[in-house]
C-alpha cells in the first residue's frame, strides 16, 4: 500500500486553521496546513496529499484558482477537494466549484461532525484508489504475476474441448411408460 498521504488544510486565518485541525484530530490522519494559495500549491506539488480542505477567498491566489491549476496537472487532478466559504451560498461559486470537480462546498460555520464524516469518506476513498493503482502498476510490471488468458480461436476453427458457453445438459432418468426428457414437455 502506498505511504499514507496527508490532509492539507488551507486558510488565511490562523484561528480557522487551528479549529479545523482540532475538528479533524479525532480521525488520526496526518494533517498539514498552509496559510495561502501559493503555499498550498507548493505543498501539493511536493506530493503525498490525499485530501485538500481549502478556503475559497484568500489574498493572492484564491481557493478556486488553486483547484483550477491542480485539475490541469495529471499528478494532482484526482486529489479530492473540499472548498470552505464563509460568504454564504453563491450560485456562481457553486457552479464553478462543481464544474472543477470539487467534492463539496462547505459553508462556515462548519459542523465538526459533518466535516469529519466528509473528510473520512473522501480521504479513505482516495487512499483505496491509490492502493489499487499501485497494485495495478505492480501487476503490469511483473510478467510472472500476470494471469494468462486462454488462446483465442479464429473464426471457423474447431473447438478443442467442450463449448463452455453452453451449460452441460443432464439427462433425466426415463420413467416407465415415458420417453426420456418428456417431463420438460409437460409429460406429453
Automatic annotation (TrEMBL):
Coiled coil: none annotated. The modification 4-aspartylphosphate is found at residue 55. Residues 135-145 have a biased composition (Basic and acidic residues). It comes from the Bacteria. Residues 6-123 form the Response regulatory domain. SMART domains: REC (SM00448). CDD domains: REC. Gene3D superfamilies: 3.40.50.2300. Residues 135-188 are annotated as: Disordered. Keywords: Phosphoprotein. This is Response regulator. It comes from Streptomyces physcomitrii.
